[in-house]
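Page 42, continued from yesterday. The earlier attempt failed because a stray header line got pasted into the input along with the sequence. Redoing it now with the clean sequence only.
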Amino acid sequence: MKGLWGRALWVDLSREEVKVWEYPAEYALNYVGGRGFAARVLWDYLPPGADPLGPENLLVLATGPITGLAVNSGKMVVAAKSPLTGGYGDGNVGSYFGTMLRKAGYDAVVISGRARRPSYLYVENGKAYVLSAEAIWGTSASECERRLKEVHGRSSGVLCIGPAGEKLVKYSVVISQGGRAGGRPGMGAVMGSKNLKAAIALGDMDVPVAEEKETRRLLAEGFKAVKSKEGYSFWERQGTMATIEWSQEASVLPTYNFREGVFEFHRMIDGYSMEAMKIGLHSCPICAMPCGNVVRDYEGAPSELDYENVAMLGSNIGIGHLGHVAVLNRLADELGLDTISVGSVVGFAMEASERRLIEERVEWGDHKKARELIIDIAQRRGLGELLAEGVKRASEKIGGGSQEWAMHVKGLEISAYDCHAAPAMALAYGTSPIGAHHKDAWIISWEVRTGRHSYDEAKVDKLIELQRIRGGMFETLVACRFPWVELGFELDWYPRIFKAVTGMSVGFDYFYEVADRVYALIRAFWVREHGGWSSSMDVPPARWFKEPLTKGPLAGSKLDYDAYMSMLSAYYRKRGWDSRGIPKRETLERLGLADVAEALQKYA
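This time it went through. Structure tokens are written below.
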């Protein structure tokens, strides 16, 4: 397949060996790239039952065939067995590392082992080295990147971890460009467990494409098309921060650890408040619609904001001052913590304190205590030691009924949409392949428009459609969803771009089949690593079923458990999975996964 080099780097940190791996052609044809490539590598080469923080775990850094060649394609996937969930974990991160890795002559990097000293990987034009990171171990994510660019040049692409990754915080992430983060299920901890502080790529080679002129033309026209869309100027002003106002109006803004869907101080943290503080705008590479709104925080430092981090570090923990929220967000980025998960664990701690389940006093809205707690989490100090494990493990430790309001699915903290009155979004969280994340199916806007309280199969059909597009096509190509989601950039651009780059003329049926294959493979990975499966793993927290909203226009709303389980059963049926949520043999065989079906018999 054109558009791909057909080779990846295989790095054994224990031996400090780097080899070139010419991966099988079926990886490209059947899985395309990105998430698909990563999932197949982890299934084929990770020993079943491997310790996520042990040297046997594999860290996969994977691009896709259009990475760096199309509008908003400066994206890549970081994946591994998750230390937070024990299942498949990945994240999509905007980074020059991905575009530069392609220019250096590789599609991906697979990293195993554990370095004997703090190290980083350096890749440049067909060569790669494992170098000492002892001088930068312990630095913040942005300081790490700054120092490495001083050595290797400003145009190099850098992925790095902060102190939280070094300390193996279970929801530490990989950071690039100061505020680009990826790998919510603990990909930063996997790097830290390998003594790997960073990975750098630099190259000037041209990726081989099928139709060079057409690829260039579509890139240029794609930029023009995105910028000509209605709503583009408002996007430039607020980006995802406009979602604060929308979520408040729709009663889905996470408030006080997802107790409520409206926040009394939402105006103090919304997109208009952000505009008044805005000092800059950051983006991923090859981007036509920058989303990183930079403000000056309460301590005078720049902080890059978007909806998820403001909602989780604002309304979810009762902080109604955007300058204070920005401080917490900046700290999380510097320390290498996932802002969604850290907002969830701080909210969990505040509720546990309110209920007197912990000795520490952590009051709602106390931005100073939240600041201290975030630093303690990154350093695994005091209460931070417990919270560094995530809300699932923390609730199991403190008990007192806290498991009912530990807001996670499969161990991954829920991202910033309350689902008391959004059953389709609850199902999206329940069936997301990495745990409770909105990335694979942001169905809530469609649900709010078309009817929130129904539990019919139309919602299941829409969910699967969105998973095929968002979690399948975009995650394997690899590209950003924002032009399509936010501005209506037409989906048929992507088969056209794919043809120009690869030479393959395919329709959406091809991408949907790839998506179904990847979803089935990831689910098989979960079943294998957990030694079996139960449908209970796909059910969101009890709070949404048992504790109705008490505020806002939807006061009294809560999820219906039986109706939810009916939707989940329909989802399994339409996916070709059994009543427990395990892909059936005939489904796997139809998707070309006969070898997976055979291996899965041991656990099914």
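Notes: Residues 8-202 form a domain with the Aldehyde Ferredoxin Oxidoreductase;  A, domain 1 fold (CATH 3.60.9.10).
Reminder to self: strip header lines before submitting.
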